[in-house]
Amino acid sequence: MPEGPEMVFLKEQTEQFIGQVVVEVKGKTRNIPFELVKGQELTQIRTFGKEILFCFQDNVVRVHLMFFGKYAINGEVNRPLELGLSFEDGDLNFYACDCRFLQEPQELLEAVYDWSADVMSESFDQEQALQKLLRQPTQLICDALLDQSILAGVGNGIKNEVLFRARLHPESQVDQIPIAILKNLIQECVTQSFRYLDSKREGTVKEHWLVYQQKECPRDHIPLCKEKVGKGQRSGYFCEKCQVLFHPVTG
Predict the structure, then answer these.
(1) CB contact set of 236 (below 8 Å; sequence gap of 6+)
(2) Which end of the chain is more exposed for a tag (fewer CB within 10 A), N or C?
């Protein structure tokens, strides 16, 4: 699933279309009223977590790439087209994604989205994120980090990386983790998100990951555990030796 940094990277790639008029809208989505988008000028592009928002004067087209979404700029992908936007000077095509139409003009997006929860936003509030974590005391940290109402933009890759860097086992329970470690974990979500964005820009994503989709712990040089963890049963990559498990003591 694409994560926040990938959406910011997509935003940077598509900013070439800002100021251009949509000359054609096509695709199999039924969530977008094509006639209300065609003829509109793209005025701004924003991201929120794993979503990208194409802003027009009177409405917004929101795209979420879900688990297997793809996009093509001035090209095509060999799969059914979900949404295609043709501008005066190029095309933007989306596949296997969720598209939504927001009738709110772009200036009202502040009321729709809580930007303080977006780890890549200037408005991100780390203290607020900490308080939200603490309100879910019995949740496993591997699940809490993927809660988009707390840390919008953090996906499975970033989750595995920040837990490794914080030396924290993914099945640790939130209320058992020291506050200092939770604060460090939140900061790592921000740090790793921007490092991930840099790796996308440089084309070095494979070199970015220390443990995600890897086989050996780079600290202890022993095999990493790869398991489905948490309620969401997402893939976890972790080291049993250097990542500490905080859990309730049982009799």
Answers:
(1) 142, 160, 170, 225, 226, 227, 228, 229, 230
(2) C
